[in-house]
Amino acid sequence: MLADRGRPPARLDLVPAAFFLFAAALLAAPQPAPAAAPARSHTIVGELARVDFDRGELTVRAPKEGRDHVLQVGPDTRFVGGGRALQLADLRPGDPVVVVCSDDARGGHRPTLVKTGASRYAAPVPGTRRP
After folding, report:
1. Where are any strands of DSSP class E within the chain?
2. Among 27, 80, 82, 121, which lies 20 to 30 A Cα-Cα from 13?
3. What average pLDDT does range 109-131 have in this prediction?
4. Measuring CA to CA, which residue among 72, 91, 64 is closest to residue 80?
5. Which residues, 6+ apart, have CB-to-CB distance to 101 below 8 Å?
6. Phi/psi class of residue 107: alpha, beta or left (left: φ > 0; alpha: ψ in -120 to 50)?
């Protein structure tokens, strides 16, 4: 047995208590808010079925998906056709379109770009005739 040299005995029972206090302080610290998921970007290829100028809505018939998409046009939506910028008033039902959308938090489609006119590289939309 070693001789006691005048030091008090080590207090090993305080180590676990200090550890638990430190862990509790870490858990109680405010956590950063989770980052919002990035908006998913995708395209809708089809034909304009309806243009509602009063509401600012486009209805795009997408035969590949077998359904119609009702899209709310926003102030940041760009319209392009024939190599020039267009406006919503220039769109007509029956126009072939490619719409680039990003989804909002609720999963709704927000159009960012609407391109009208047939592309020489795109496959024809079923049920339409070439001019």
Report:
1. 41-52, 57-62, 67-72, 78-81, 84-86, 96-103, 109-116
2. 27
3. 68
4. 91
5. 41, 42, 43, 44, 71, 109, 110, 111, 112
6. left
Which residues, listed in sequence order, are joined to residue 41 by a DSSP beta bridge? 102
Structural tokens at position 61: 């018939």
Q: 21 phi and psi, to 5 degrees?
A: -65, -40
The residue behind tokens 């927000």 is: 110
CA–CA dist 50, 74 (Å, integer): 17
Q: What are phi and psi of 69, to 5 degrees?
A: -115, 125
Cα three-residue angle 48-41-81, rounded to 5 degrees: 40
**pTM given for the model:** 0.60
Read off the tokens for 130. Answer: 């070439």
**Which helix (H) or strand (E) covers residue 19, if one does?**
helix 14-28
pLDDT one-digit tens code per residue, 77-94: 999 988 889 998 899 999
* Among the listed residues 92, 2, 99, 98, the one whose alpha carbon sits nearest the alpha carbon of residue 10: 2
CB 86 within 8 A of CB 92: no
Domains and CATH numbers, the chain: 41-116 (2.40.50.320)
